[in-house]
Amino acid sequence: MTSIPLSVLDQSPVRQGGTAADAINETLALAKCCEEWGYYRYWVAEHHATGGLAGCSPEVLLSRLGAETKSIRIGSGGVMLPHYSPYKVAENFKLLSTMYPGRVDLGVGRAPGSNPFINSVLAYGSQIGAEYFPQMVGDLDALLRDVDPLTPGMEKARAYPRVDIPPALWMLGSSNDSAKLAASMGLPYCFAYFINSNIGSDIFATYRDNFIGSDVAEKPYSCLCPFVICANTDAEAERLYKSRELWYLRLLTQNESGGFPSVEEAENYQYSENDRALLQANPRHIVKGSAQRVKDELLEMAEKFAVDELMIVSITYDFDSRCRSYELLAEAWAS
């Protein structure tokens, strides 16, 4: 068996012709399958005001995921902390840890998860912005561990319910800044390679070299999250990817990308020269192909970046192909 753990990030994609309810039910079904196939964690994402991704509230979805599964770790990938009160986030995830002790991860990020207008709607007049993110993470960490928060005036604050095993706090990111922040705060670090693949291996070296041990983590622990499509053949994986490529183009060119198009629609779409240029100017590294090819590339990636764990995000138009992608990779990983 491959020694490096393999985990899942699920964005709860909505396909054209489908509904958000379909997407959430598929997330629940996929989580149970991934637990059976041996995946280590199952994280769900936070996105706002988009018809293509149904997961807008990780903590709500996690409450159901925990009940649908038995042992796999569940978590947020992640909570966009600048939108919220660290105290309320601590309460939500302590409650989840009360329900599912020893299984809950709390990944937090600085990114908005939407557009500037929706960000202002989420803030509802609050002047606390992303520039306060490090302070908010520090306060959240303290509230999870029942110690004094950093912010003056909050020293006596304690979040309930009290738990014997607090949620595992993670730093999420897609830049050198997040790597440095994770190192300075002594947190495990997960890099969104599916968002930003234009990085060098030095980003994780920076994280490891600058890591300061903490009550959360005594030593650095890193995870890389690429986009993956696995199929019976390389050609089939390339075909399945066409749906995601067209969706990504629409994301770049429209305010609302909508649901994921079918492979047939993507195959019939007439890409203009400007479309191709736009895609080339905004590259995303995609790992796609047969199970062995995907496994080999992932292992090379893990060695290049010297990460401790890989977390996979896969989206295809039809749910059966997405399930099969995860199943094929799990089988290859176990061989």
Largest sheet, order of strands side by side?
A: 1-2-3-4-5-6-7-10
What general outline do the C-alpha atoms trace?
globular
Order of helices and strands: EHEHEHEHHEHEHEEHHHEHEH
Give the termini distance in whole angstroms.
5 Å
The secondary-structure class comes to alpha/beta
- Radius of gyration based on Cα positions: 20 Å
Point out poorly predicted stretches.
Answer: none
Per the CATH scheme, the topology name is: TIM Barrel
CATH architecture, by name, is: Alpha-Beta Barrel
The overall number of domains is: 1
Strand tally, please?
Answer: 10
Continuous helix count: 12
Q: CATH homologous superfamily - what is it? A: Luciferase-like domain
- How much helix, percentage-wise, in residues? 40-55%
Largest sheet descriptor: 8 strands, parallel, barrel
* Beta-strand percentage range: 5-15%
Feature tags:
335 residues, alpha/beta, TIM Barrel, 8-stranded parallel beta barrel, two-stranded parallel ribbon, 12 helices, 10 strands
Structure description:
This protein is α/β, with parallel strands linked by helices. The protein has a single domain, classed as Alpha-Beta Barrel (TIM Barrel), CATH 3.20.20.30. The protein contains 12 helices and 10 strands. Strand 6, helix 7 and strand 7 (about 220-225) form a beta-alpha-beta unit. Helix 1 (about 20-35) packs across helix 2 (about 60-70), helix 2 (about 60-70) packs parallel to helix 3 and helix 11 (about 290-305) packs across helix 12. It is globular, with a radius of gyration of 20 Å. The model has no long low-confidence stretch (mean pLDDT about 95).
